[in-house]
Design a protein that fits this description.
Blueprint lengths: L18 H21 L19 H4 L4 E4 L4 E4 L5 E7 L6 H11 L5 E4 L1 H6 L1 H9 L3 E4 L12 H19 L1 E3 L1 E2 L15 H9 L3 E3 L3 E2 L8 H8 L7 E6 L6 H16 L3 E3 L1 H12 L8 E3 L2 H53 L14 E7 L6 H9 L7 E8 L5 H8 L4 E6 L4 H11 L4 E4 L4 E3 L3 H6 L7 E10 L5 H24 L10 E4 H7 L9 H11 L3 E12 L5 H21 L8 H24 L1 H13 L2 H25 L10 H4 L3 H17 L23
Helix pairs in contact: 1-11, 3-9, 6-11, 8-9, 11-16, 11-20, 11-22, 12-13, 16-22, 18-19, 19-24, 21-22
């Protein structure tokens, strides 16, 4: 095909591929998803891991109380005095249940000790502030609720530090209390837990376990929760409850009964630190414990950064969730519309009484713009000149300044109905306009120099011109070199993404593109549309939109088949699709104002730009969300559900492919590569569209990029 000349008006530097920008974007997205995955680390209700023995745990701890002050230098444990209860709550704060728990505590004038998750503090800062403002006590329950005994030392320290930073940012305080996830009574501490507890003590933490466990997470019923939380006799107790992690209606109801019941038995309610100080006093220890202190300014600033990261990641994932639904709706909606309208188009065309009108036998001029097409020009011209059209075919090869002897190759064929026109390089639109001006006939067929026609393609392509309203006809483009995997992927794309879509667009009367590889035009329609222009890199889309705006019908003739040579390398494919995507957006931008036109111009443009924007630009730009969330889900969510969702999407595409191949009368065997297409080819097309949009938004100009050709085999030797 001819290469467009670059005029002075457009001679600006072509921006290089935004690989750095793309890598940075992907890195940011990956970072955001990882932050969210980390902050959303799933956890199960409190449990005890298998006992590893207690040879290293001091007997004073195993037989001691639930408050443990232990480090490398000393070990002490404490119990609450008799008739003293500390209500402790794990896993919050929660926007639903923490306020309900606070409502009950306030009603009974009781303070609680809340062992919070740092990730929850970052997500629900108002709830954390309410706890502090209500004079309740806070403790660290880690940032993501892992089993600390299974983590390395640096990870454990990170869990504590991040929770402290979240508290510093949100409440302005830090705490010295810690409770490990999945911990229990003191007598359950084993040799696996003990080093973790000592390490926490070396960091200045006071470990708070429990005497009674309500087991409210199991939802055993209000009566059973109260029974589980009630201490034996008159002994003091640190009781374990939960204000997050699920439905806590039973917890709230149980608290509302438990507190007054224990008060009637003479119990007092304290925070964990108040209970420890009472224990000190009872033991005659001259010491007073403090549960927390004001956070430093540095911790507050670092904490804000952490909170922003967590909440930002949550917002991004929420947006991704919305986009996921949007992409799903668009994909399924497009599939449904395709099945309905493309199927209707096929049934109408295959009806026995279907006809365009009287047979068209007027002579045809075939225009072949050529720039350095020595590999395939001979096969292309022979296929055109030898067509079985009885009306007569004139082939005009416009050599657009080739330097490889393209024109000489055509001359050497010595075909009587073929003319060669040599001109200086001026670009493909210029070559096409030259050919049209020199053509002798009013029915014009435009063909790329690398395309081979089937013998009856010209005859079938011009039959729709029996309808005087038809101004242009799009033919059926086939991939001729299907041996490589990348060519097979393009073959599938041509059948589904191009030919099936053209059935839809014809039905809706908003055909956006008559392909340069095989398209028929009325000279009158071309003249009315202003001919080919170099305003865009997609001159075929540009002129088709102009024809549609002018009120001409543009139709699709599936039986007129031509074979084109598809790119055989990723680099060549990238260049081609980059130009197509960018050129299409140029054409859309050029015709944007006509959406406000009245009559045929406005109706066509509104439909055309709507579908192109929705399915040609927006859907490819948003579709990566499917893959990103699928990858995210396989690592951090329910793998089975994620795999099932992905398989459903693949199933929809497979059904679409089968329908398209049946309508196009293609063999289904090649569809075995469709699943593989989802892992490479689809992502490549996403990146192409993203780069094209970035180029357009940054005001860059893209030059024509010539593809390397090797030539096609003769049509007769090629099978579907």
């Amino acid at each position: 095909m001819a290469e467009p000349a670059i005029t002075a008006r457009r001679r600006r530097a072509v921006p290089p591929p935004r690989w750095v920008l793309l890598v940075m974007l992907l890195a940011v997205l990956a970072g955001v998803l990882l932050v969210n995955a980390y902050a959303n680390a799933s956890f199960t209700p409190d449990h005890q891991h298998s006992n590893q023995g207690q040879r290293e745990v001091p007997t004073s701890v195993v037989n001691g109380g639930p408050i443990i002050s232990a480090n490398s230098e000393q070990v002490r444990s404490y119990r609450l005095p008799d008739r003293t209860i500390a209500l402790t709550f794990d896993d919050g704060p929660d926007p639903v249940w923490t306020p309900e728990v606070l409502r009950v505590l306030d009603a009974h004038q009781v303070k609680g000790t809340f062992f919070v998750l740092g990730s929850q503090v970052a997500r629900h800062p108002d709830m954390a502030r309410n706890l502090v403002e209500g004079s309740h006590e806070l403790g660290v329950h880690t940032f993501t609720h892992p089993d600390l005994a299974e983590l390395s030392g640096w990870r454990r320290d990170l869990e504590y530090a991040q929770t402290q930073l979240a508290l510093a940012a949100v409440t302005g305080v830090r705490t010295s209390l810690v409770r490990f996830p999945y911990s229990s009574h003191a007598d359950a501490i084993d040799d696996q837990d003990w080093p973790v507890l000592i390490a926490a003590g070396d960091l200045g933490y006071l470990t708070v376990l429990n005497d009674t466990d309500s087991q409210d997470w199991a939802l055993p019923g209000v009566d059973r929760i109260i029974e589980n939380a009630t201490p034996d006799g008159a002994s003091g107790a640190i009781t374990l409850w939960h204000d997050a992690g699920g439905d806590r209606a039973q917890t709230v109801a149980a608290l509302d009964r438990f507190i007054p019941m224990m008060k009637e038995r003479g119990y007092r309610f304290v925070t964990a630190t108040e209970g420890l100080n009472l224990a000190f006093a009872a033991a005659g220890v001259d010491h007073r414990a403090e549960s927390g202190a004001a956070a430093t300014a540095g911790d507050r600033w670092r904490g804000r950064m952490l909170v922003w990261a967590v909440r930002g990641a949550d917002h991004v994932l929420s947006v991704f969730g919305i986009l996921f639904v949007l992409v799903g709706v668009l994909t399924l909606g497009r599939t449904a519309v395709l099945f309905l309208l493309a199927g209707r188009h096929a049934r109408r065309r295959r009806a026995r009484d279907w006809t365009w009108g009287p047979p068209v036998t007027a002579p045809v001029s075939v225009i072949v713009p050529a720039y350095n097409e020595k590999e395939g020009i001979a096969a292309a011209v022979r296929s055109l000149a030898g067509g079985d059209y009885s009306g007569g075919i004139e082939v005009v090869v416009v050599d657009d300044g080739s330097t490889d002897g393209t024109a000489d190759i055509v001359d050497a064929l010595r075909l009587p109905n073929v003319r060669v026109v040599r001109k200086p390089n001026g670009g493909k639109p210029s070559a096409l306009n030259t050919g049209v001006a020199l053509a002798r006939h009013d029915l014009i067929v435009m063909v790329d120099g690398d395309t081979v026609f089937e013998p009856d393609a010209v005859r079938r392509l011009v039959q729709p011109f029996a309808d005087p309203q038809v101004g242009a006809v799009a033919g059926n483009v086939k991939v001729g070199n299907r041996r490589s995997l990348i060519a097979k992927w393009q073959h599938i794309e041509y059948v589904i993404g191009f030919n099936l879509d053209r059935r839809l667009y014809e039905t809706l009367r908003c055909m956006p593109t008559v392909p340069g590889a095989i398209g028929g035009f009325r000279r009158q329609a071309l003249r009315y549309a202003g001919g080919m222009t170099d305003d865009t890199l997609a001159e075929d889309t540009d002129v088709t939109m102009a024809l549609g705006r002018a009120g001409w019908k543009v139709v699709y003739e599936e039986t007129a088949r031509a074979w084109t040579e598809a790119p055989t390398s990723i680099g060549q494919l990238w260049k081609q699709r980059y130009r197509w995507s960018y050129g299409t957006m140029q054409a859309m931008w050029k015709h944007r104002r006509s959406v406000f036109d009245r009559g045929a111009s406005g109706r066509f443009t509104r439909r055309c730009l709507f579908f192109l924007s929705l399915f040609g630009v927006l859907l490819p730009l948003l579709a990566p969300v499917i893959d990103l969330l699928a990858l995210y889900g396989l690592f951090f969510l329910d793998r089975t559900a994620t795999a099932l969702a992905w398989l459903v999407m693949l199933g929809v595409q497979l059904v679409t492919a089968v329908v398209a191949f049946r309508l196009d009368r293609e063999k289904l065997g090649v569809l075995w590569v469709l699943p593989l297409q989802q892992f490479v080819y689809r992502q490549l097309m996403y990146l192409v569209m993203i780069q094209a949009v970035v180029t357009a938004l940054t005001g860059g100009r893209l030059g024509w990029q010539k593809l390397r050709r090797t030539g096609l085999e003769p049509v007769a030797s090629r099978t579907g």
